[in-house]
Write the structure tokens for this entry.
Amino acid sequence: MSHFFKKKVDRRSRSAMVEFLSNHFRYDSMSSWNGVTTYANKIKIQNIGLTPSQLGKAFTLLDVDYWDDIRWPIDDFTESQGDQYTITSNGRSGGYLILNRSCRELTGHKSYCPSCGQLNFKSVDSSSDLCGVCHKPRRNFDVPPSRLSVYAGKDIDQHEDFHIEDWSMDALCERVDLICAFDEACDQIRSNFIALLDDFEVVEETIYKPVQVKFLQRAA
Ligand SMILES: [Zn+2]
């Protein structure tokens, strides 16, 4: 179901593509004080086209941490963009999904300890290279570990007029494809949220946690 992805953009028409990109909803890339904006979609629960009963249920979810259950379209999107773009949330209580530039960087770790999980910046040369924490043998990574770096606070196409000298038809098409993929990922997250509303209910339970306490005891 599409809510954010609204219309097919005619890739043969320069003006249709420029109109789509120029009129797309935008939001602050980091905070409002620096005035930097990027492509965005508003995901506040009042604004995503819920039925009255879904909306009522959505309010009962406000204290429930469900983001990890519905966020997977972001990973798919990021991977499909070769890690050069990703989606983050911004605004008070994350009411907006925004497009960010990103890149994948090596963490620099060369080896790890299979026993305790400790990472190490040096590779293992001999079997006597032991873990500094648990003193078991370390192992080299087959694939060096990496992490996604997000260029938060940078604008994307702010004040851009998509002038013909700077933007070929191919470049415009590519940018429209990117923003459509962004909108579709936001739609998928919205669908995941609605499926959550329809298929689950909030259960309240009191749990008991062990707590460390100190008290006085008469010396023997
Ligand atoms: Zn270890």
In short: The mean pLDDT is 92.
